[in-house]
Amino acid sequence: SSFNFEGVVKFQDMACRSRRKPGPLYVVEHLEQGLEEWCRLEYKHICKIVPPERLLFLRFPSRQDPADLSPQGQAPPRTSSAALEQLRPDLAVEARPMDIEVQPGEERAPACVLPAWDRICLLDMDAEQALEPHDVSNFDALVFGGILGNVTTEEDGSYGSDDRTSEIRKLGFAHRRHLGPMQMTTDTAVLVSSLVLEDARPLAEIPFLDSPEIGGGGGGSDEAKVSDSGPIDCVCMEGFRYVAHRGANEEWGPILPDGMAEHLASSADGGIL
After folding, report:
1. Most distant CA pair in the chain, distance
2. Residues linked to residue 159 through DSSP beta bridges, in sequence order
3. 257: region left, alpha or beta (phi > 0 left; psi from -120 to 50 alpha)
4. Contacts by 147-153 with C-beta closer than 8 Å and gap 24+?
5. Count of beta carbons in the 10 Å neighbourhood of residue 10
6. How far apart are CA 260 and CA 273, in angstroms?
7. Any bridge partners for residue 198, and if so which?
8. What is the pLDDT of residues 101-130, one digit of tens each?
9. Would the pTM of this model clear 0.90, i.e. be above it?
């Protein structure tokens, strides 16, 4: 299906004309055991959004080949089995791990992997400030939690999360930003951040779709609703926010990783949702 990434291209086509500077380093701290299919699909989507030289997956499972995440013909992203706290720039050099996968010609020294700690920002739903276009000059790296978060419903009917971001918030970031009041998948958070910082689009100007029905007859493009084996069962992603895209049929649908609609439908009764 070409639906999902075509939406990304449409939102980022202005980057060639108006991008103010190269984007930051996008750091994904993988917090799940192994690499489940839903996570692999999200990470593959991130590799379409962010070029490999500006992408770093930490705590990446050592038995996984990062080249499997990259589009055909593209270099793999950098990965390390180390945790973020082991790569902090203020950590003694001799205490840092040396397994960072780098591209030919790059320095292997871990000291060069991350910018200064006060130039790193954690994307955090509990942050007081929203990410804004001018932050492109404030931060050299953004940190995202690679997690399957659970949505909670508050007493006032609003949505919250089980706050698994606390697992990395405890490192004591000087800067934190949020992307709005609703939970996003990791790839959606990366996409939104790139639109805000690299395309200078405030959050208010990005079209969002909340709690979408994926598959079935819940809207979006035909490609998002039909697989090779026939119609896909409808799954409601209650409490999640996605970037919206108007499909060829003029209906709005969420931008998803390739194959995610089928995976969600097949996993609806398996504990992923």
Report:
1. 57
2. 153
3. beta
4. 147/31, 147/32, 147/186, 148/32, 148/36, 148/38, 148/39, 148/272, 149/183, 151/183, 151/238, 151/239, 151/240, 152/239, 153/239
5. 12
6. 13
7. none
8. 554 434 443 445 789 999 999 999 999 999
9. no
